[in-house]
Amino acid sequence: MTISKSTLRGSNRIKENDKRRIVDETSRKRRHRKIMELLESDNYHDDPHADLVMSKKIPKFDDNLEHRNTRTKKKERTTEYYQFKYRKNFQQLVDEDRAEAELNKRVSYMDIQCEESPLPPRHFCAVCGFLGQYNCLSCGTRYCSIRCMDTHMDTRCLKWAA
Q1: 3-state secondary structure the chain
Q2: Which end of the chain is less enclosed by CB atoms within 10 A, N or C?
Q3: Are 81 and 44 in contact (CB under 8 A)?
Q4: How far are the Cα atoms of 54, 120, 139, 155, 160 from residue 29, in angstroms, in the given order?
Q5: 143 φ/ψ angles, rounded to the nearest 5 degrees
Q6: CA-to-CA distance for 154 and 38, rounded, in angstroms?
Q7: Could you read off the pLDDT tens digit of each residue along the chain, which spans 162 residues?
Q8: Do 128 and 144 contact (CB within 8 A), yes or no?
Q9: Statement: the pTM of the whole predicted model exceeds 0.90
Q10: How many CA atoms lie within 13 A of 101 on its CB side?
Q11: How far apart are alpha carbons 38 and 89 in whole angstroms?
């Protein structure tokens, strides 16, 4: 049995493209919507560490005991303390703005819209955020360089494809 030269030779690029899974436009949109929902759900929850209070039972080790005052002063609380203690998430701020806008008969944050831009939309690299000039053939995600393409292929490409 002899193997001809033409069967041994071939383009590696064509072989790679045969292995690659290409997703249609509806799957790309579904994937994009799923990613956006994950980001939105991640953004709209309270900070789990916001209410943590340090325990007073932790021993305090002072290196220099000579400077210790016999009389204790009450700690003055700064504005940073109150800003941290009564911090609000974005959803609470939007709700307060809407209620205040209804009382004052003004436009709220959620009601404001700008007109559509006459310029074409910009496309950014999904890896680093610079302008993305190239598209991934499989999933359609934008990237800007070979380095970002390698990162995309290794970690992100079709990760959430259904």
Answers
A1: CCCCHHHHCCCHHHHHHHHCCCCCHHHHHHHHHHHHHHHHHHHCCCCCCCCCCCCCCCCCCCCCCCCCCCCCCCCCCCHHHHHHHCCCCHHHHHHHHHHHHHHHCCCCHHHCCCCCCCCCCCCECCCCCCECCEECCCCCCEECCHHHHHHHHHHHCCCCCC
A2: N
A3: no
A4: 46, 20, 10, 20, 11
A5: -145, 165
A6: 21
A7: 555 555 567 777 666 666 666 778 888 888 888 888 887 777 666 777 777 776 666 666 665 555 555 555 666 777 777 777 777 888 888 999 999 999 999 998 888 888 888 999 899 998 999 999 999 888 888 999 999 999 988 887 776 554
A8: yes
A9: no
A10: 13
A11: 18
In the structure encoding, which two tokens stand for residue 65, read together?
């005991």
Q: Which residues of 87-118 are buried (b: 16+ CB within 10 A; e: fewer)?
A: eeeeeeeeeebeeeeeeeeeebeeeeeeeeee
